[in-house]
Specification:
Layout (H helix, E strand, L loop, with lengths): L1 H20 L3 E4 L1 H4 L22 H20 L7 E2 L7 E6 L7 E7 L8 H15 L4 H17 L4 H7 L2 H5 L20 E10 L55 H4 L1 H25 L1
Antiparallel strand pairs: 1-5, 2-3, 3-4, 4-5
Helix pairs in contact: 3-4, 4-5
Length: about 290
């Protein structure tokens, strides 16, 4: 009888926690991720045939589809157990586990055996795409958070005691039928299959309390005293004073120059030419003798 009562109380508490979970949106719990330490991974850089090649956007879109479906089920359909099988469904899956009691909630992303992800860059793209759509943030923010998520999962790889202590028991149970591994291994050889845990918290909208509006205070009009009128005297007309005329100044005319002063240079030039002719004539007369 006691077991039945305890079980009933547990189910009642669980259903209450799930009902609360459906009321608010989720946000990544950075209190856990802030403790993440950087890890170095062993990756597979072998040749990939064109049949199995995917672009960076295609790989990121795989995670985006998972995140969009989980968020739709959580916020629109108000599902108690949001789940996404992804596309293709044999590569990736995701499930959301709400918090109950004092334990935290988390999203669990399952990496299937046929995912064929061998580099940390591509794995981080899948997790980033999921975070981007599941929590409604930008791609740049999702990339930074996804990096911390991967490091944090590697820090606690297969640390079952850690996850059971801090998270709802169902976090350790989701996809356990597919893989017992939880967290992220350092080597790509152990990534498929595995489970990546993304801790989150619920964000409830807080409505401010309604307050009675304050009555407006009537302000008395301020009567300003009249400004004094400036009285200006009327202008008196004064006739313009005549300007004084300048006194005439007598200028004595210059005397007219004499004939010699006026033609001085012409007389000098003519005399020089005449003297030159006389000299030439004398020279010619002597040459005849």
């Amino acid at each position: 009888m006691k077991k039945i009562i305890v079980l009933s109380l547990f189910l009642l508490t669980l259903s209450a926690g799930l009902a609360f979970a459906a009321d608010g949106s989720a946000s990544v719990d950075m209190d856990y991720l802030s403790q993440a330490k950087r890890e170095k991974y062993v990756e597979d850089f072998s040749y990939v045939s064109w049949k199995n090649f995917n672009t960076g956007k295609q790989i990121r879109d795989m995670g985006r589809r998972l995140g969009a479906e989980v968020r739709y089920q959580a916020e629109v359909n108000k599902t108690d157990y949001p789940f996404s099988s992804g596309y293709p469904d044999y590569k990736y899956k995701a499930s959301r586990v709400y918090a109950t009691g004092s334990k935290s909630g988390a999203d669990v992303v399952y990496i299937g055996r046929r995912a064929r992800v061998g580099t940390f860059r591509n794995l981080n793209r899948v997790i980033s795409g999921y975070i981007e759509r599941a929590y409604g943030i930008s791609m740049a923010q999702a990339d930074q958070i996804a990096l911390k998520v991967c490091y944090w999962n590697t820090n606690h790889y297969n640390d079952n005691a850690y996850f059971k202590k801090n998270f709802d028991p169902r976090v350790s149970e989701v996809f356990k039928n597919r893989t017992k591994s939880i967290g992220l291994a350092r080597s790509y050889k152990n990534w498929q299959p595995s489970r990546v845990v993304i801790p989150f918290v619920l964000v409830k909208e807080v409505v401010p309390e309604a307050k009675e509006p304050e009555k407006p205070v009537e302000e008395k009009p301020v009567i300003e005293p009249p400004k004094p009128v400036e009285v200006r005297p009327e202008p008196t007309y004064e006739p313009p004073k005549p300007k004084p005329r300048p006194e005439p100044v007598y200028v004595e005319p210059e005397p007219e120059p004499s004939f010699f002063a006026k033609y001085k240079w012409w007389l000098i030039l003519g005399g020089a030419i005449l003297a030159l002719i006389v000299v030439i004539a004398v020279i010619k007369g002597r040459s005849r003798d």
